[in-house]
Write a structure and sequence with these properties.
Length: about 325
């Protein structure tokens, strides 16, 4: 494991924030993991595990070791009457993995196409889009405990998945290095196409995984700014989930406020709608701002710092709280 001192992180975070780290290393194999364990035992410094850098914001430089997970490999494990089980290493690009499963004739992950990041980071956030969450097709994962080197197996129950949340996000950040994830992909899929753009793209066509994936790729490219062109981390805020009483009170004042019934009876509403109707879509202060394409996306127009982007996010949180009495929760990890 090669360690680089005073390394730039600008190319390693999709916001394009010009931060640096005291030490940097890449984890490609089991020997590198062992070297990381030894380094950690010898240094009283924090370690940050980095995937694709698409779900975090560096507010400052990092005083410790950033370890980028580059573990590679994917394969079909087994098959039964209901599922095909496929596994991918934690450093695999998520979207490329999704497209690989489709090319192999498997279904289930097509609605999660074009979500940036890595396979190992996906369970931490319990990524989701267009009616599907990672948890819907998750089977198990393997992780290394960086405190003692133990190799751990997690089934779905132990992951404690929730909306954009998991055991790893609450308790395991930078403590558990996810080395591989296994998915149970249905052999008899039930397509999730109840979204206007997807339905329109498939009109007159028989749904299949590739067609759904292609439709969602086009939708995401149309709605969301490309981080290769303008720095961003996708959706910056979680969609609020409200009590029925709170929802009803808001609907009386704002009849067009969207809402989606949840299994527990609560109502999920749209953070993008709230931000847009506060007049903040396209809001900009220097090089930090809110995307003109999508109100839920914060963008770096060039040289915004992490502190400036955080300041914009706090202005949005305050505005939504003042107008709707709803507290927006950031989706990306903010590294202070």
């Amino acid at each position: 494991m090669e360690i680089i001192k005073n390394a730039s992180l600008k190319a390693l975070n999709t916001f394009g924030v010009n931060a640096s780290t005291q030490y940097y290393a890449e984890i490609h194999n089991l020997d590198d993991i062992q070297a990381l364990l030894e380094w950690k035992a010898q240094h009283d410094l924090p370690v940050l595990l980095l995937g694709g850098g698409s779900n975090l914001l560096f507010k400052n430089n990092f005083d410790g070791l950033v370890a980028k997970i580059c573990l590679a490999g994917k394969e079909r494990i087994e098959e039964d009457d209901n599922f095909t089980y496929v596994s991918a290493a934690g450093g695999e690009n998520w979207h490329k993995f999704v497209r690989w499963t489709i090319s192999q004739g498997y279904a289930g992950l097509e609605n999660l196409s074009l979500i940036p990041g890595t396979v190992g980071a996906a369970p931490i956030q319990n990524i989701g889009a267009y009616g599907v969450e990672l948890a819907d097709h998750f089977h198990s994962l393997q992780a290394v405990n960086l405190e003692n080197g133990d190799v751990l197996e997690f089934d779905k129950a132990h992951c404690q998945f929730a909306y954009r949340d998991s055991f790893f996000k609450r308790y395991g950040l930078d403590k558990l290095l996810i080395t591989s994830v296994t998915f149970a992909l249905p052999r008899h899929p039930q397509w999730k196409i109840d979204y206007a753009g997807v339905r329109d793209a498939l009109e007159g066509k028989q749904p299949n995984a590739e067609r759904i994936s292609n439709a969602i790729i086009k939708l995401r490219q149309h709605k969301l700014p490309d981080p290769e062109v303008i720095g961003n981390a996708g959706s910056f805020f979680k969609n609020p989930i409200l009590s029925p009483e709170k929802w009803q009170a808001l609907r009386e004042k704002y009849p067009e406020l969207p809402g989606y019934q949840q299994a527990d009876g609560r109502i999920k509403t749209s953070a993008a709608w709230l931000i847009h109707h506060c007049g903040l879509k396209g809001y900009r202060k220097g090089d930090a701002g809110v995307s003109e394409k999508h109100a839920l996306v914060l963008v770096n127009y060039g040289n915004a710092t992490g502190k400036e982007l955080c300041s914009i996010s706090q202005e949005i949180i305050a505005a939504i709280s003042d107008k709707y009495e709803i507290f927006l929760e950031p989706e990306p990890r903010i590294v202070v």
